[in-house]
Amino acid sequence: MLPVAIRDALVAHARAEHPNEACGVIGGTSPAADGGTATRWHPTRNRAASPLRYEIHPDDLLRVMLEIDDAGEVPWGIVHSHVRSPARPSPTDVGLAHYPDSLYLIVSLAVDEADPATGAESVRAWRIVDGSSFEVALEAAPGG
Questions:
Q1: Which residues 6+ apart lie within 8 Å of 43 measured at CB?
Q2: pTM to 2 decimal places
């Protein structure tokens, strides 16, 4: 489950970092693969500062992972945005996926990917394990 407030915050971060890809980590009660719930959004800097790829800044990654561990949580999701492409993992994204128990959430800022009824950005979740990716339905939850 992804609280609406967290979804809104990661979309806002993606917009704020445009024209570069944004990135961050979501902490949760237990791994997403085990049915855990997202509890906290941790925006990070994109060390690559690129519209084509992301790299969570190592200082931010260390800080966030310590905060998540200190809170008794786990990395529930790894987030980044795609500036002009669909919210699907690229071959680069798949190759750099190092957290098999976490979801990989991608926010697409591409206009043609937005919800036709609401205009909301596309946010999709993926499991990436051993070089393969498959989509996971995101359930919205109140709170955040």
A1: 9, 10, 13, 22, 23, 24
A2: 0.94
